[in-house]
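Re-running the complex after MR caught last week's input typo. The corrected sequence lines follow. Everything else is unchanged.
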Amino acid sequence: MDLGLDVSENNGITVLTVRGEVDVYTAPRLRERLVELASEGHYRIVVDLEGVDFLDSTGLGVLVGGLKRLRSHDGDLLLVCTQHRILKVFEITGLTKVFSIFDTVDAAVTAE
Amino acid sequence: MRLAELEIPARAEFVSLARLVISSIADDRYVLGDDQLDNLKLAVSEACVMVINAQAGRAREGSIFVECTGSARRIEVVVDSGAREGAIQKDEGQAEVEDLGLSLMRSLVDRIALEPHGSGARLRLTVDCEESDEL
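Corrected-run output:
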């Protein structure tokens, strides 16, 4: 099972593009990447989940951990997601109230 | 009717196998919407994660047992460790992520039961659906 993680910049904002399945096996790699980015001083990160096919509670936990880490540095973690199957996971767990979720990377970057 | 029985190592890399096998069988034998199928896949995955977490720290690697049974109107998936040690504990006051997992499972399937089993519990997930006419 493959997890793709690509980092780019859009108008000075760090964008982490995630592809594949984020589950108990792959989520630690996402956590490592977020921790690395934060330790490099990237405190405002847009995580693009448009290419994610599957997201479980472990993946949610990693995103919540990333959000807490970045907010402790006055930063933020914004999400990009329009897929019903992924959005549903945030809705069920009430995390749509915790994360800012946008339809496009451009919209998330502009909001920053 | 028993549709499938799996025993996989209680390791993270095998969880995708369990969810793929169960969702493929369910999709093949029952009339399920995309949403129901996605929900079942995620619920099975969360149940397997509970078993892995319950077995964390044990010296010997454990297993995850997944049994899928079906009747004309429902699919049931039972997930447990099959062991006296490292079973899912019935105490639900566990870690934050595990609470997220349980809360997800409750919303994803029609019924979820934590049944006493050995020294712990096993999870029974039930999805109401119709058997496929193509069988």
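None of the earlier attempt is carried over here. The CA atoms of residues 57 and 113 of chain B lie 25 Å apart. Chain B has one domain: 2-128.
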